[in-house]
Amino acid sequence: MYIVMIAPECAPVAKVGGLGDVVFGLCRELEIRGHSVEIILPKYDCLRHDQIFDLRLAFKDLWVPWYDRAVHCSVYFGFVHGRKCFFIEPHSDHNYFNRGAFYGQVDDDQRFAFFSKAALEFLLKSNKHPDIIHCHDWQTGLVPVLLYEMYKHVGMTHPRICYTLHNLQHQGVTKEHILRATGLNRHSYFFHQDRLQDNFNHAAINMMKGGIVYSNFVTTVSPHYAWEILNTTQNFGLGHTLQIHRNKVGGILNGIDYDVWNPEVDRHIPRQYGVNSLEEKYENKRALRQRFWLQDALKPIVCYIGRLDEQKGVPLITHAIHYCLSHGCQFVLLGTSADARIGQHFARLKQHYNDNPDCHLELSFNEELSHLIYAGAEMIVVPSQFEPCGLTQMIALRYGTVPIVRATGGLADTVFDINHSDRPCHERNGYVFNHFNAPGLESALHRAIGMWYSYPPHFRELATNGMRYDYSWNHPGGDYLNVYELIRDK
């Protein structure tokens, strides 16, 4: 099968969050299974060029219709750790992808609408006819719209579209100028509740909604998140649209790359270990303490690794730090925030605990350092308000670091409570609380800390249970191929 991914990110060359990891990991798995896969990305000026091999010009003069004129583009090709990637570079006064950042620009709607149109124009002009076009999040929501309303009429009749929703909090709600820019000029046609019109702001179009309506199949990044967006307010206003199209909506749990996240082969940790040598994990704990000047004491290290934003549960992350430090634990945090207010909050917290020998808050993001924290900590807290999938808890499980999570989205699909799960004892792998509040978090932390101190063999068994889980791309790779086969035959 010939598959083209159109995405705003691909790790490690253009990565903001889990989306980039998913695109790379899924493509790698599909290629291992014998399929031909190509990835189309914007040529950001902040790409990690050190991660691209043999970058060269592949298509010199791509003219992309835009408003009442055309924008000249160049398309480059290179290998990203073996993945075949095309990078679209527009030559325009707008400098769409020369901003020193991937997202967060006031004209993100125009930037990614242009990218969506340019990707299809490139496929058309280079005479590529993939079986499947796989799009990701609101940034590429217009790809299925443009394919079925425009490009299929000029020869692109073959591709079918799988559209993955990574996070419904961001939907690409914008104004009618995007219709004029892309050539979707029939305003009364597209400003319709069955097409692109936003469900609440009827003077706006919703790019993610367009992707849902026009794609052949819609996936979310975990089964529980699929249920949540169909049945709770976590759909952020797209509930009616999802209900209409529910027969083509399904959840597939993300995977993680065990070539990267595997303590048995990890080059970023001082002592490698596995499920049968978990005692070696202590050497990484010692190294973590030395790195952050924590005291060497008979205490567990609890950690948090990830973005610091409202979705991730800032009040409960804060509460976990206070609770752990006052209940016989050490705490390490690694994360940064795009929100200045949240950033200032954690900066004050860092200053408050600056001289505490049991606490270190690292307000940055360093992926190499995260490996040491996963390997050195005994527990990780993931108290998210909502979590479409979450890779953090799956990585932690692989490293024998017991997750303490809220039962939402992919967290509910991957972590099973030691006391309350209906699974057999050998399949239980962490601590789960249900309600987004301090008492729920405290209850889970109390049980976890108590077991670490009072029943060390049981805590070790819980850690090894988690290490035995297979959250690689093996299973989701097969699930996505089943979806591709389903829609290819339609």
Give an overview of the whole structure.
This protein is of the alpha/beta class and 490 residues long. The chain has two domains: 269 residues, Glycogen Phosphorylase B (Rossmann fold), CATH 3.40.50.2000; 190 residues, Rossmann fold, CATH 3.40.50. Helices cover 36% and strands 19% of the residues. The chain contains 17 helices and 17 strands. Strands 3-4-5-2-1-6-7-10-11 form a nine-stranded mixed sheet, sandwiched between helices. The protein has a six-stranded parallel sheet with strand order 14-13-12-15-16-17, sandwiched between helices. Helix 1 links the parallel strand 1 and strand 2. The longest helix has 18 residues. The chain is globular.
List keywords for this structure.
single chain; Rossmann fold; about 500 residues; 17 helices; 9-stranded mixed sheet; alpha/beta; 2 domains
List the helices and strands and how they pair.
Layout: E1 2-6, H1 18-32, E2 36-42, E3 53-66, E4 69-80, E5 83-91, H2 108-125, E6 132-136, H3 142-149, E7 160-165, E8 173-174, H4 177-182, H5 187-190, E9 205-206, H6 207-214, E10 217-220, H7 223-231, H8 239-244, E11 249-251, H9 281-292, E12 301-305, H10 314-325, E13 330-334, H11 340-352, E14 359-362, H12 367-376, E15 379-382, H13 392-398, E16 402-406, H14 409-414, E17 431-433, H15 438-454, H16 456-467, H17 474-488
Parallel strand pairs: 1-2, 1-6, 2-5, 6-7, 7-10, 10-11, 12-13, 12-15, 13-14, 15-16, 16-17
Antiparallel strand pairs: 3-4, 4-5, 8-9
Helix pairs in contact: 2-3, 3-6, 9-12, 10-15, 15-16
